[in-house]
Amino acid sequence: MEKKRIGRKDFIKTSCSLIGLGVLAGLAESCSSYKVFKTKVTDGTISIPLSEFALEEVRIVRAPGVGYDILVRKMGPTSFTALLLKCTHQDWDLQVGKNQINCTYHGSVFDWMGNVKTGPASTKLKSLATRIENESLLLTYS
Questions:
Q1: Contact, 129 vs 142, CB < 8 A?
Q2: Which residue, 99, 122, 98, 119, is CA-closest to 108?
């Protein structure tokens, strides 16, 4: 059986197409959508009704004056994490994907606990303190 040789031009065209598909797949991953809960900051505290987590364990919280969204995840019946979606490399908005958090500016990737998976960022994301009080999840923002 004779092997067919591929020309340089066809090789480059095919390679670029495959790379493009990989980039699109990465962008699709970063575009997962989660419900946004809009609220305000009162005396350095952000309040979210626990009922927001009855059906889904993830919320993006948006509050005027904070400057960046906050990723809030329910980890257990009374356990939550809250991460400021601000890249630690150069203060850029982050996009929440299905399994990771992405910076579209320089390509940093963080896991859902805020740890750096891929640089150039070298510092984990800022966590906000959480506590439950009167059927609300309270985040301390300072």
A1: no
A2: 119
Give CB contacts under 8 A, 24+ apart, made by 59-68: 59/34, 59/35, 60/34, 60/35, 60/36, 60/85, 60/96, 61/36, 61/37, 61/139, 62/36, 62/37, 62/38, 63/38, 63/39, 63/141, 64/40, 65/40, 65/41, 66/41, 66/141, 68/93, 68/94
pLDDT digits (tens, 9 = 90+) for 1-51: 555 566 655 555 554 444 444 444 444 444 458 899 999 999 999 999 999
- CB-based contacts of 75: which residues, under 8 Å, 6+ apart? 81
State what percent of residues in the chain have pLDDT above 90.
Answer: 63
Q: Where are the alpha helices (DSSP H) in 7-141?
A: 8-30
Under 8 Å between Cβ of 120 and 87: no
